[in-house]
Amino acid sequence: MPRTVPGGPLFQLDSHPSGRHFLQIPGPTNVPDRVLRAMDRPTIDHRGPEFARLTREILDRLRPVFQTAGPIVTYAGSGTGAWEAALVNTLSPGDRVLMFETGHFAALWRNMAQKLGLAVEFVPGDWRSGVDPALVEAKLADDRAHAFKAVMAVHNETSTGVTSRIAAVRQAIDRARHPALFMVDTISSLASIDYRHDEWGVDVTVAGSQKGLMLPPGISFNAVSDKALAASKRAKLPRSYWRWDDTIAMNRQGYFPSTPATNLLYGLHEALAMLHEEGLPNVFARHQRHAEATRRAVRAWGLDVLCRNPAEYSGSLTAVMMPEGHDADAFRATALARFDLSLGTGLGKLAGRVFRVGHLGFFNDLMLCGTLCGVEMGLALCQVPHTGNGVEAAMAHLRGAPQAALSRAA
Ligand SMILES: *Cc1c(COP(=O)(O)O)cnc(C)c1O
């Protein structure tokens, strides 16, 4: 019996009678027990010597994840906060910026830029494709006066399961010889899909804790180039909490200007250890492999993946199109009620039309099999037209293509 308090029963987390909940939304993701245990420690003095060591170790482990040698600013805040930080540190009221409609998250970032007083050119998209490098080049080549101060892209569009080719976008900016800053949202790709802040000449990389980094929600990041730092000295948008300079200066001593999310940082320290133990190339290969197995299941069911271009398939998640006349959210509700499986909802204009399978973060073959079994049973229960061969197709792929890190250990 739930205990009662004035106002009603206490919120019950363990609502399901037995076994683990399957949290297969594309973030927040499953938090490893190692990370949970690391956070379950007394909070320490964030101005003390122990904390300074923690900060330095985290920054050392974080840089190879962003693939940068430069500063990484960590915020107590969600990914949305880090979006705002990227804009307010680098831009001035009325600045023109170029953004691309890859899906719901790109649209939200655009809305934020407009609310902050930026003049956004939002290149329309079909929500099934990534940023087109040829369009980037054409738009920037036309801008001879260099009115665009920044180009923004979402690396992995979490609403659609489409990954934009950031290296190719960088090359397009270079071919147009355009000086705009390049800012990339990697909230659902960092530590899941190969991403290179320095090599790809990104000026601000925006990231969050609760997706590939396997942490609960609550911290977010800006990786910052020298060019972005220089722009921040001239930028006129008002900013206070999000200022980079104070944090970068204090991080050198291992501290933060205000109270950081201490226990989440314990968790980050542990999650980074896990990522480096597995090896980032193995982490990326694992995500690609689970994504491929998932797509094979979708095709064997006779359903369609939302992403049109195989070069843009996401390693983090797969968005699956519901057949006409069937409601993806009714299906998701059945999967939750019957199998304790949470699948991602359709966002924005995809509401009811797609469901999303998250296969990122702390995840393995049998978790994928369990997830796909839940999907297959849910499709049958909801009488969604499909074949029953999806799980078998995924298993065949997993059997045939062993995980590199595991087979080496065997
Ligand atoms: C989750 C997500 C966001 C939003 O992050 P919050 O932590 O919810 O504020 C933004 N962009 C992308 C690509 C995301 O996946």
What does the overall shape look like? globular
Report how far the terminal alpha carbons are from each other. Answer: 46 Å
Number of helices: 14
Low-confidence stretches: none
Total strand count, please?
16
How many whole angstroms does the radius of gyration measure? 22 Å
Indicate the proportion of strand residues.
15-25%
Account of the 3D structure:
By secondary structure, this protein is of the alpha/beta class. The strands form five sheets. It has a seven-stranded mixed beta sheet with strand order 4-12-11-10-7-5-6, with helices on both faces. Strands 13-14-16 form a three-stranded antiparallel beta sheet. β5, α4 and β6 form a beta-alpha-beta unit. The protein is globular, with a radius of gyration of 22 Å. The longest helix has 22 residues. α2 packs across α9 and α10 runs parallel beside α12. It has two domains: 144 residues, Aspartate Aminotransferase, domain 1, CATH 3.90.1150.10; 244 residues, Type I PLP-dependent aspartate aminotransferase-like (Major domain) (Aspartate Aminotransferase, domain 2, 3-Layer(aba) Sandwich), CATH 3.40.640.
Summarize the structure.
The protein has 410 residues and is α/β, with parallel strands linked by helices.
Describe the secondary structure blueprint for this structure.
Layout: E1 4-5, E2 8-9, E3 22-24, H1 33-39, H2 49-66, E4 72-76, H3 79-90, E5 96-100, H4 104-115, E6 119-123, H5 133-142, E7 148-154, E8 156-157, E9 162-163, H6 166-175, E10 181-185, E11 204-208, E12 219-224, H7 226-234, H8 244-251, H9 262-278, H10 280-301, E13 304-305, E14 317-321, H11 328-339, E15 341-343, E16 354-358, H12 365-381, H13 390-400, H14 404-409
Parallel strand pairs: 3-15, 5-6, 5-7, 7-10, 10-11
Antiparallel strand pairs: 1-2, 4-12, 8-9, 11-12, 13-14, 14-16
Helix pairs in contact: 1-9, 2-9, 5-6, 9-10, 10-12, 10-13, 11-12, 12-13
Bound molecules: pyridoxal-5'-phosphate (PLP).
